[in-house]
Every structure is written in C-alpha cells, then in structure tokens.
Write the structure tokens for this entry.
Amino acid sequence: MQQVLQKAEVLIEALPYIQRFNRKIIVVKYGGSAMSNEELQKNVIKDVTLLKLVGFKPIIVHGGGKEISRWVEKVGKEAKFVNGLRVTDDETMEIAEMVLGRVNKSLVTMVQELGVRAVGVSGKDGGLLKVEKKYADGQDIGFVGDIREVDAKVLYDLLDNDFLPIVAPIGLDDNYNTYNINADDAACAIAKAVGADKLVFLTDIEGLYRDINDKSTFISRLTATEADNLIDSGIIGGGMLPKLNNCTSAIRNGVSRVHILDGRVPHCLLLEIFTKQGIGTAIIADDDNLATGTKRDQFCEDH
C-alpha cells in the first residue's frame, strides 16, 4: 500500500507543472551519449512522448555527431574539427546528411511506436532553416551553416495538427547549397523562433559547476547575467562555452527557461520538469521574480 501511495504522491506533485505548461512549446535538443545508448534513447523518447500526451507541445532537434564521425572513418577519412565545429567538405556533407536522415527516421519510428504521431523534417524542408556560410575564427571550414532565418510556420503547422516535429540540423543558403548546422545552434534558433516556453539541452554532464572538480559547487539555477559573468571570468570553457552562450541568447530572446540536463540519467526530462528538486541547471531571465539565492524547491514551484 505504501508503494501505491508513493506513486499517487508523484502524480500529485506533477499536477501543477502539467497545468502550468499545458499547450506550451518545449524544444528538446537531443544528442550526446543518450543518443548512442539504446536504452537511454528509449527513455528520452518515452519522456518526450509523455510530455506530448499530457499537453505539452514538444519539438525534438537532434544531433548525430558521433555517428557521423563513425561513418566518416568508415570511408577512410579523418574527422577534423576547428573550435568544436566539424570541417565539412562535399563528401563529409553527403555523409552527414545521410546519417542525420537515418537518425531522424529512427526517432520518428520510436515515437510512433508509443502511439504519438511524429513527422521528421530537415531544415531544408519548407525552407525551415536558412543559413549562411559559417567561419571558425576566419577559417573556411566548408559546408557549415550559420542560421540566418527560421521559418517557424512549418513547425506551427505540424504542432497545430497534433504532430510531434523531429528536426535534423541541415539547412540551405540562398543558392540552395546544403549545410550542416550545429545542433545546439539549431535548437536555440528554433526555440527563439517559435517562442518556446522551455529549451532543454540533453548533454553528457550533470549541469554547471563553479569548479568542475568540486561537486559541492553545482549550480542549480542562475540568471542570464550570472551566466555571462561565469563566461567572462573564464570559469566556463570548452564545449560548454558555446552551449551556455546559446542558453543566454535564448533567454534574452523570449524563451522563459533553459535547462541543461545530463542525458545519461534515465528520465532526466521528467525529473527536471515534474519534480520540485530537479536534477540539472536552469537558466532564467534577469527580471525573473526569484531573487538570487532562492532555494531550488522554491524555484521549481514557479517554473
């Protein structure tokens, strides 16, 4: 009986969050180890499907970097990166589009197996993602795109017709050349364009730390300005730096909350969104009504 009551308490705890975010758009950037592990992959898809079934309007933006690198090596090429961006020549672009297309339709299949209608698109479809050539510190890195414009109508039409959109980060420039896009950048641009209430990055770390070697310095919540201060102080670096820049950009362009979660934790999405404790790092606007230092549980009651 006690176990049954605990299950009921979990459902009751989730109720205010379900009420708060009913019909709200949440963009989930899905990649990293959670994508390469079959069991974790199923858990993520179950989480997103549940969000859809309880009234959210989720959009998945997926990566596929590790799989692309694997296929690049299969054809005898060496994967090269500049400042974390893949150097993408004609052949690598062809491989990337093939791999991302396979990943996309695999995710569509997994969602539909759970009884939710999903549609997989790339940024090329309907002119969803319009890009221009991206450079890395002035270096030409090939067919890597910087998003110039998002035509949100494609996604609105799918959401309005009760589909779950799943987006592969590929776009076209004005001359209809195909470009690979960093999935974090694509998720951020899409979240801003559709006015998402939440943007969630599933990563390979637990969240943000003031000192990565000291687990007691974990940051459960911070404002966009506090995030900028962390960047300016040099505390945040490596692959987390562009991700955090995307987080603050999203907040300053209308996204209510941005979450950085460890995609290796089973059902991390549900734990972050539907529980008072949460498990990751949340970034909020500077003018949020929560003062600095507010406890996580108090924050979660309002997020």
Summary: The mean pLDDT is 86. The chain is about 45% helix and 25% strand. Residues 90-113 form the longest helix (24 residues).
